Amino acid sequence: MRFISADYLYTLDSKPINNGVLQINNFGEITNIFKNKAEIPHQNIEFFNGILCPGFINTHCHLELSHLHNTSNMVNGFSEFLEIVKKRDKYSKAFIARAIKSAEDQMIKNGIVAVGDICNTTDSLEIKKNKKLYYYNFIESFEVSSKKSSDAIAKALLIRDAFRNNNLKATITPHSPYSVTPDLMKLIANVSDEFDYTFSMHNQETEEENILFKKKKGKFHNWLKSLNASAEIWTKRSSSSTVLDELRPKRIILVHNTYSSSADLKDKYYCTCPCANLFIENKLPNYSIFNSDNLCVGTDSLASNNQLSIIKELALIEKNSNFSLEELLKIGCRNGANALGFNKYGTLEIGKTPGVNLITGSEFGLANSKVKRIA
Ligand SMILES: [Zn+2]
């Protein structure tokens, strides 16, 4: 049993508590929260200078692309980024596995406790079996030809079941509005079952996606035609958001939203990956359109980021928005846990096992802060 205190506890389900104390058992479960240090004999308290918050939730990552780190410094737009990802299979499985392991270690070191991770393969399965982090695995389906929809869903089902057979949470999810045909979207909806809490889909990451749906032309249009894509992708749909009518998700996390406007937003969870957006498109979302109750944050993969660190992502949001420190921490902890259905995580509440992060230096802005997991 430990008693942990700091200048402030950011519980994220109530106001920050000055000098509050967390009582935590040997399983990491919060068993009590005291509003005042004086309630506990002081020799029992571990006091830290700084603030305490729950463990971070990385709502969007592609762990299996970790080996593509440093294959380019900066890319010139999304199409160039896709070229890098296409080279993913040119590496040995052992090399890929080592990169995944070290990426996971990096997340643990940076105070991340749970991850929404996109999977196109089972490359990350062995590491995830160790349960060092808690994962929601989104098995991503990507197929632009209607003729190949049944092959695509069959492949995704094999991967999903490989994860589920190892007691890991897995849901088949569409890659993006422009890379999944209406047929495939319906198949994804059909195979969804009671174990699927939510979906996750890349959304409005580039301006070209909007142009495709609005004007039925542009770079994505040309690119899709060169792939012999089924025209229903753009002819049957008027915008990225109408794509959701085919899936009718209970819940969905829309990822990136770099080119979303307030008119595009619905009652969904939105995940931002600012470091990756700068890396790929050199553009950030307009943060003033989002609210701090349903915005989550992710690192995306090491193929488009120099590190897997939620505090670095939050520092970038802080610099480009008016969110308060408490709102930023909700974005980094609570909202992602809610979006992924991880109800033991995300807030410092009795009965939860959220992990506890110590943040120092936040009074000078998160860009200068350090994070350390202390429980
Ligand atoms: Zn992504």
Give a description of the structure:
This protein is an alpha/beta fold and 375 residues long. It folds into two domains: 1-54 and 348-375, Urease, subunit C, domain 1 (Roll); 56-345, TIM Barrel (Alpha-Beta Barrel). It is 31% helix and 22% strand. It contains twelve helices and 15 strands. The protein has helices spanning 78-86, 93-109, 125-129, 149-164, 182-191, 207-215, 219-226, 232-235, 244-247, 274-280, 310-319, 325-340; strands at residues 2-9, 17-18, 21-24, 30-34, 45-54, 56-61, 112-119, 134-141, 169-174, 199-203, 252-256, 269-272, 295-297, 356-360, 370-373. Strands 1, 2, 3, 4, 5, 14 and 15 form a seven-stranded mixed sheet that branches. Strands 6-7-8-9 form a four-stranded parallel sheet. Strand 12, helix 10 (274-280) and strand 13 form a beta-alpha-beta unit. The model has no long low-confidence stretch (mean pLDDT 95). The protein binds zinc ion.
* Oligomeric grouping of the chains: single chain
- CATH homologous superfamily grouping of the largest domain: Metal-dependent hydrolases
Number of strands: 15
Please write the string of helix (H) and strand (E) elements: EEEEEEHHEHEHEHEHHHHEEHEHHEE
